Amino acid sequence: MLFDLPDDDALYDALLERDPRFEGRAYVGVASTGVFCRLTCPARKPKRANCTFFETVGACIEAGFRPCKRCHPLRPAAKADPAIAALLDALEAYPQRRWSEADVVAMGYDPSTIRRNFKRQFGLTFLDMARQRRLRDGFTALSSGAKVIDAQLDAGFDSPSAFRAAFARLLGRAPGTLSSDGLLLADWITTPLGDMIAVSSASHLHLLEFVDRRALPSELVKLERATKGSIGLGAPEPTSQIRAELAAFFDGRSARFDTPLAYHGTPFTTRVWDALREIPAGATRSYSQIAREIGRPDATRAVARANGANQIALVIPCHRVLGADGSLTGYGGGLWRKQRLLEIERHFATKGTTP
């Protein structure tokens, strides 16, 4: 980046005005359509609550958005580099192919050069871009009841071992270990801030995390141990409920979450989580304030640890806790998400829709 971007309200104004000054420097992901655009896109402008702004194309793709077919946000990079254009065209023609460096070589390009150019232009490599696109297709197929081999083929993985490895990196386990009759069932939820994994029993939501959270595989292992049950694939009622509530949240209609939750923590940790849920949308607290509110003013560090142990993102709003000086502090989903969530919730507070 050659300069710091303004805040999201200023970027939204630039989107409305189709301001060319941000060409190639900022992009918008639109929750209602699932696509990302240049700020100069000629399409009808989305509502502010449906917009999330990113600095790179790669960040848009990793957050689950598809390129807009009106403004073609990948096109400027493709025009600047014929090799990028050729590979993007090939990916569009064969999205389910398991692309490798050998394919890049076969097309007449040097893999290291392509890797470097894609990282510079998009923030991720060509192979990462292709893999992200296929893995979600495989998860969706498994969730709908497809056999592992069918999900593997749907996702474009020619090799069962490659599919197992890619899936294991995401969930910490091979797809064949997941069934539809587990005590806990996992499902994929797409949001404007990136895809999430929800794990529910028949009656409660046990986990809700962004798929790129590094701790997700270990959290799933801990969850299985705590419940003494296996994790399968499916969408019980609590998952359906939280999916609808997340849609209402990102659509700007409601900041209320009524999905029943299952806590997995010590009595102290659950007290902290209850205190977090009492923070209104649009408000924030410091760790020391939370410690005082639960009657443990000497336990600021323990409060911070409990905050970090939260496995139900957004619903238990650990993103509403700031440093003592008001600065953003660590957030498992990434500080950029924490900032965006706080911006969304300021909208609720301004509109008077905070529960």
Molecular structure report:
This protein is an alpha/beta fold. Among the domains are: 8-67, DNA Methylphosphotriester Repair Domain; 267-351, Winged helix-like DNA-binding domain superfamily/Winged helix DNA-binding domain (Arc Repressor Mutant, subunit A, Orthogonal Bundle). 45% of the residues lie in helices and 11% in strands. It is built from 15 helices and 10 strands. A 4-stranded mixed sheet has the order 3-1-2-4. A 4-stranded mixed sheet has the order 7-6-5-8, with helices on both faces. The chain is globular and about 65 Å long. The model has no long low-confidence stretch (mean pLDDT 82).
Helix content: 40-55%
CATH topology of one domain: Arc Repressor Mutant, subunit A
Strand content: 5-15%
Q: On the 0-100 scale, what is the average pLDDT?
A: 82
Described by its quaternary structure, the protein is single chain
Poorly predicted runs are: none
Order of neighbouring strands in the sheet with most strands? 3-1-2-4
Backbone CA Rg: 21 Å
CATH superfamily of one domain: Winged helix-like DNA-binding domain superfamily/Winged helix DNA-binding domain
* CATH architectural category of one domain: Orthogonal Bundle
Write down the overall geometry: globular
Report the CATH C-level class of one domain. Mainly Alpha
Q: Would you tell me the structural class of the helices and strands?
A: alpha/beta
Number of helices: 15
Termini separation comes to 39 Å
- The run of helices and strands is HEEEHEHHHHHHHEEEHEHHEHHEH
Catalytic activity: a 4-O-methyl-thymidine in DNA + L-cysteinyl-[protein] = a thymidine in DNA + S-methyl-L-cysteinyl-[protein]; a 6-O-methyl-2'-deoxyguanosine in DNA + L-cysteinyl-[protein] = S-methyl-L-cysteinyl-[protein] + a 2'-deoxyguanosine in DNA
Protein name: methylated-DNA--[protein]-cysteine S-methyltransferase
Cofactor: Zn(2+)
Keywords: Activator, DNA damage, DNA repair, Metal-binding, Methyltransferase, Transferase, Zinc
